[in-house]
Specification:
34% of the residues lie in helices and 18% in strands. The chain is α/β, with parallel strands linked by helices and 229 residues long. It has a single domain (13-226), classed as Aldolase class I (TIM Barrel), CATH 3.20.20.70. Helix 2 (58-67) runs parallel beside helix 3. Bound molecules: D-xylitol-5-phosphate (DX5) and zinc ion. Zinc ion (ZN) binds next to strand 2.
Length: 229
């Protein structure tokens, strides 16, 4: 090891969000995107309080765990998520992110996720400044930057967040940390390269994948764009 070259960043990972899948065929949908080249399965958990929508909970995560070998990336959009970390981990969550805005004791909750054995992430809404994660950045495995206001699939990418992605990438690189930046909301084939250039590593894509007729073609097109970034 050693040398002056910066550590090369691994190729971007694509995480289809099942929020836009057909819930009556969830097992088939997950197998289909896994077969189409997905790297992770992104699972949006919403409680109707932190966000104005209700989706699914631990029993569904446990079912998903039975039907795929891909890591389950569980995005908790719920108030006081510390109440449920262990349960989601037991259900099969491999990555768990909590919203900084929903945690009174963020540092403690990050440690709790790490102790559970899951990869630990903190998610930030578009309007939340990066400074709220200053103290935990050295502890987390990934930061999830929302590029829409959370609650629904199919919303428009908020391009003002690109600068926040760049700032976080600069900070991570300057500190020599190995923290992934996951970008969630409005990611499409035509903006994924720009998001990667800003510093994104993991790309959540709900409607872009599941509303397309050809999951394999869409994921391949995203990868091709990533190759150009
Ligand atoms: C939004 C969720 C996203 C959502 C993304 O609150 O966190 O994961 O599924 O959907 P698209 O890719 O359609 O914006
Ligand atoms: Zn999400």
């Amino acid at each position: 090891m050693g040398g002056s070259k910066a550590r090369p960043r691994p190729a971007g990972r694509i995480a289809p969000s099942i929020l836009s899948a057909d819930f009556s065929q969830l097992a088939e949908e997950v197998s289909a995107v896994a077969g189409a080249g997905a790297d992770l399965i992104h699972v949006d958990v919403m409680d109707g309080h932190f966000v104005p929508n209700i989706t699914l909970g631990q029993p569904v995560v446990a079912c998903l765990d039975r039907v795929t070998d891909l890591p389950l990336d569980v995005h908790l959009m719920i108030e006081r998520p510390e109440r449920y970390v262990e349960e989601f981990r037991k259900a099969g969550a491999d990555w768990i992110s909590v919203h900084a805005e929903a945690c009174t004791h963020l540092h403690r909750t990050v440690q709790q996720i790490k102790e559970s054995g899951a990869r630990a992430g903190v998610a930030l809404n578009p309007g939340t400044p990066l400074s709220v994660i200053d103290v935990v950045l050295g502890d987390v495995d990934f930061v999830l930057l929302m590029t829409v206001n959370p609650g629904f699939g199919g919303q428009k990418f908020i391009s003002a967040v690109l600068q926040k992605i760049r700032s976080l990438r600069d900070r991570i690189d300057a500190d020599g940390l190995s923290v992934d930046i996951e970008v969630d909301g409005g990611v499409k084939t035509d903006n994924i390269a720009e998001i990667a250039r800003a510093g994104g590593d993991v790309f959540v894509a709900g409607s872009a994948v599941f509303d397309s007729k050809d999951y394999r073609g869409t994921i391949a097109a995203m990868r091709e764009q990533l190759g150009k970034s």
